[in-house]
Amino acid sequence: SSGINAEYGREAFNMQRSLDKGQLMDGLRHATEMLNELRTSILPPKNYYELYMMVTMELTHLNMYMSAEFIKENKIADLYELVQHAGNILPRLYLLITVGVVYIRSEECSRKDILQDLVEMCRGVQHPLRGLFLRNFLLTSTRDVLPDDETQASDGGTIEDSINFILLNFSEMNKLWVRMQHQGHSRDRTKREQERLELKLLVGTNLERLSRLEGVTVDKYEKQILPAVLKQLVNCKDSIAQEYLMDCIIQVFPDEFHLRTLENTFLDTCCHPQSQVNVRNIIISIIGRLSNFAQADPANIPDDIKLFDIFSVKVTQIIQSRSDMPPEDILALQSALIKLALNVYPSETGYVNQVLQDTLSIFQKEESRAKGCSGELSKLLRVPVDHYQDILVVLQLDAYPKLFSFLELGTRRDLCVYIAEHVIETDTLIYSHEQVDMLWSMLECLVAGGPDDTTVDPEDFECEQALVGRLVHQMTSTVPDQQFLILSTCKKHLTAGGDRRIQYTLPSLIFRAIHLCRVYHELREEDEKWEKKVTKILQYINSLLSSLVKAEFWDLSLRLYLQAALVCDTMGISNAETVGYEFMSQAFAIYEEEVSDSKAQLIAISLIVATFEQTRNFSEENHEPLRSQCFRAGSKLLKKPDQCRAVGLCSHLYWSGRNREGEGEPLRNSTKVLECLKKAVRISNQCMEPTVQVQLFVELLNKYVYFLCNGCEEVSESVLSQLIGKIQEDMPGLESGEITRQIVKHFESTLGFVTHRQLLST
Amino acid sequence: MVSWLGYGNSAQISIELDDEETRTKVPVFTDEDSKESHCLFYDGESVIGKVDIKLKQEGKKLEHQGIRIEFLGLIEIYYDRGNHYEFVKLDKDLARPGILSESCSFPFEFLKVVKQYETYSGRNVRLRYFLKVTISRRLVDIIHEKSIAVHQLSSYPETNSPLKMEVGIEDCLHIEFEYNRSKYHLNDVIVGKIYFILVRIKIKHMELSIIKRETTGSGPNTYNENEQISRFEIMDGAPVRGESIPIRLFLSAYDLSPTMKDVNKKFSVRYYLNLVLVDEEDRRYFKQQEVTLWRKSPTSLKPENRGVAALENMRT
Predict the structure, then answer these.
(1) How far apart are CA A302 and CA A240, in angstroms?
(2) Which residues does residue B175 pair with via DSSP β-bridges, in sequence order?
(3) Which of B231, B305, B306 to mutate: most A Cβ within 10 Å?
(4) Region B67-73: what's the mean pLDDT?
(5) Residue B13 CA, distance from chain mean position
(6) Do B236 and A89 touch (CB under 8 A)?
(7) Which residues of A666-687 are buried (b: 16+ CB within 10 A; e: fewer)?
(8) Could you give the CA distance from residue B205 to residue B214 in angstroms, rounded to a whole number?
(9) For labelling alongside B58, which of A17, A176, A741, B133 has CA 20 to 30 A away?
């Protein structure tokens, strides 16, 4: 292309030199030669554009020369004829435009006639690329001379002339632009489309110029400009043009214009069956535009324009009329509608629901239209959650959960997790059982079991269920009776989740129930039915626990039985003992029948003993068998060290354990305490492992010290010294190591305490 | 013009027309590329002036058999040299036989001369008017000629309908063209449009040319000479069905004569508009239409806004 540039440069130079000498005819001849370079067919649009820019830059010299020389001599009309003698059409028209603008400025001839003449004569160039640039030159050259005022004198032209001029130029340019698509080989299609996109601004400039005419009122826009532009768009049947130019209209004209023409003109065109325009982007664009406009100031939208209704109706029409519209487009449109409703009418949840309902109807009517759009649908469904920041509002949208069934399982699960997390993060409290019911129904795929459960990654499954458990804590009402209803509703949903789920979900419910018991207990003065209600809750707890037992979560149910027993003990209701005893005995039953691992057994019995030690309200009638049961169970453990520790632990039951008869006073049965401790010492003597034996001795020493300090008279100094002596004797024989070091440390601390409290006379 | 034959002679003749300074001059091709400027006359105008005879050597006498001046209208056909057809011949004696002893001048006048044809200079034929002064001598005459130009004016034709026609090649190309008139004066503008009804060929460009056909002779000895006067591109690129392409061609840009039919039964000059479409394989599709050219009185030329010629016929 450097050769071409050289040619153009030489002619441009010659033209200027001739003009400098005042030789117009030579100047025109060189200008024609220079313009002949634009007749090339070999340049791609980018390079042609560069050449065009350079050449038209040179034409400004010619323009200036003629403006200076000819207007004063009144010869411009002759010149206008003279340049038309050129044999080649392209240079001829470039020159004609150049002179024409000077002619208009001279005011010798009707501005309207010249403008009309120029835009008509340009029809002679039918080559798309050359024609587009020629007409662009026409448009930019006449930029400053277009009449733009109603009141202008008739020979100066009116705004109508400008509008007609630009509209004609626009439609001719669009035709040329569209025609590019159909030229050349089909294999170059991509390249051709790329080239077309590079040229789109040339066409769009017409619309931009129209929008900048002061005289273009909303009336003219509605009655004249928009219909003409849209007619051109519909008729051209070219999707690239339709999409770009629709967007161009949206961007260049003011919002007020769009508002006025929205319903009857603009959207109708989008609905037009002949327009193959990608309505999705266009509608989204105009919704976005008007929604920003409304957000800037609600007064911008006149009362009589129901923005949402207009869009809603049209979008539905468009979707219905285009059976081939891909689901993602449908959802993108609905999503835009939702955003409009949310931004412009934040208080009208009905609008959002309507969009959801419409979407639902579309999918229900023709399920195939929902295929493969899980991602988009899920995005759509997240919008209300994110916007309202309140799940309670989302729950009001009755169409919302119905759409879940059109999501693929994985996506549905993700969305449910998203919603659950959202509720927890925003700390939203769900305070009525109806809402709870709706929420659990919505999150069904997390809560209810299904055949697909096994396909879920176990780790994910655990996280999800933990989330469900946490969600239970958001379901809180300050009204206890309501809270009970909530719990019942939760139970209904969560127990349906199957064995794999309840271990994660039921504990939350049980703790919520326990909490509610306490609430009623605190309100016992005000609510005379409180006992009955607590009993009911305890039954509720028991039934949940039965489910866990049935599902064989032994360890968990054992702990929860103990927890329940403790609560029961503090309630002070008439049947507390019966129920408490039941819970305790259930725990024992699990311990005895289901806990087989020795380590687990020790832990379990320790828990049972510790729990039992905390109770206050068992009568001796029940207290005694439970005590003995603990002792018996402890001494029956398999391993000696375990036996020793369990039996040692049981000693506390006889010391600080309380029954109802004692009315809060501990048993303080020294004999039994010593009996236990002696038995423990005896068992530890049977230990074969010296390290463990010494360890047990030290632990038992601590027990003795504890009871001594707490006033147990039966513990004598001699027992203490005897034990200390025994430990000191065995200690040096132990293998050195970390455990031994710990034992020594423990022993030394104990001795330190003994010395400090002066428990030994020596 | 000085005849070289007379140059060696002792007298030099020149003809001066009365209003030579002020009279309109027009360029006339005397040869392929030499141009002369001739005084312009119209039919019926008198040709008045004087003949100056200047003796080479003052004092040397010139004996002659009489001096006369002729006004001649001549058609010359180049390939038929020697055969000149005089259609006008007027003569006047300026002096009886005698002796010229000093330079002198003779006034002459041809009143209201009929000049029924227009001056023309073509490939094969020429029509000219001239004044011829002859000093008759015993051995060699002294001769001097002076050409004048004649324009034949016509009035606005009574019927001047547009030329409109649909042409095409079946299933390939179908167009309708329209020129606003069938008769144009020489400074006229051809305005028209081409409407494309069917386009199935890849057109590269379209041009409108003017062809001049000069016919000489008659019967079996007829000679036609076609000459393309203009090449005027009116469309660049390939149109699609429904496009309408404007035409505006200024005839003043070209050197044209009026249409001449059967001038003195010797020759004709006719003009044709040739619409040519060229496709991408450089095949040419064309259609010729005869148009009549006429000369309009110069006083009524130059209407307003000739540049923006009437567009009414072009709009669809």
Answers:
(1) 33
(2) B167, B196
(3) B305
(4) 95
(5) 29
(6) yes
(7) ebbbbebbbbbbebbbebbeeb
(8) 28
(9) B133
ipTM over 0.95: no
Nearest-CA distance A291 → chain B (Å): 42
Residue contact B240–A88, C-beta within 8 A: no
pLDDT, one tens digit per residue, over A496-528 is 888 888 999 999 999 999 999 999 999 888 888
List C-alpha distances in Å: B20 to A649, B15, B49, B148.
Answer: 152, 10, 9, 11
pTM of this structure: 0.73
Asked if A77's CB is within 8 angstroms of B311's CB, the reply is no
Q: Residue B312 pLDDT > 50, yes or no? A: no
Note the helical H segments in A21-88: 24-36, 45-73, 76-82
User: How far is A85 from chain B, CA to nearest CA, in Å?
Assistant: 6
Mutate to test the interface with B, among A97, A119, A121, A129 (most CBs of B within 10 A): A121
HSE-CB at B102 with a 13 A cutoff on CA atoms is 1
Q: Which two tokens stand for residue A368?
A: 């195939």
What pLDDT is attached to residue B313? 35
Q: DSSP characters for A536-565?
A: HHHHHHHHHHHHHHHTT-HHHHHHHHHHHH
Q: Is the pLDDT of residue A1 over 80?
A: no
**How far, in Å, are A405, B11, B158, B295 from residue B298 at the CA level?**
91, 40, 19, 8
In angstroms, the CA B267 to CA A537 distance is: 129
Q: Which residues of A touch B306 (CB under 8 A)?
A: 77, 81
Residues of A in contact with B305 (CB under 8 A): 77, 109, 113
pLDDT tens figures, B240-272: 999 999 999 999 999 899 999 999 889 999 999
Contacts of B253 in chain A (CB under 8 A): 85
Picking from B237, B307, B315, the nearest residue to A80 by CB comes out as B307
* Contact (CB<8Å) B237/A113: no
What pLDDT is recorded for position B3? 42
Residues A176-179: contacts with CB within 8 Å, 24+ apart? A176/A126, A176/A128, A176/A131, A176/A132, A176/A135, A177/A128, A177/A132, A177/A202, A177/A203, A177/A241, A178/A236, A178/A237, A178/A238, A178/A241, A179/A128, A179/B240
DSSP B142-197: EEEEEEEEEE---PPPS--PPEEEEEEETTTEEEEEEES-SEEETT-EEEEEEEEE
Amino acid code (one letter) for B177: F
pLDDT band, residue A72 (cuts 50/70/90): low
Mean pLDDT for A700-727 is 88
CA separation for the pair A530, A521 (Å, rounded): 7
Q: Which of A103, A124, A128 sits opposite B234 (nearest CB)?
A: A124
Which chain B residues are closer than 8 Å to A103 by Cβ?
A: 307
pLDDT at position B50 is 94
Contacts of B232 in chain A (CB under 8 A): 87
> Shortest Cα distance from B72 to chain A (angstroms)?
38
The beta-carbon neighbor of A113 closest among B205, B246, B308 is: B308
Are the beta carbons of A87 and B233 separated by less than 8 Å? yes
- Where does residue B31 fall: left (phi above 0), alpha (psi -120 to 50 degrees), or beta otherwise? beta
- For the CA atoms of B100, B103, B109, B113, what is the dihedral angle to 10 degrees? 90
Residues of B in contact with A116 (CB under 8 A): 311
Q: CA B276, CA B283: separation in Å to the nearest integer?
A: 10
- Chain-wide mean pLDDT for chain A? 89
Q: Is B248 on the interface with A (CB under 8 A)?
A: yes
Higher pLDDT, A168 or B138: A168
Between chain A and chain B, how many beta carbons pairs sit less than 8 Å apart? 75
Interface membership of B278 toward A (CB under 8 Å): no
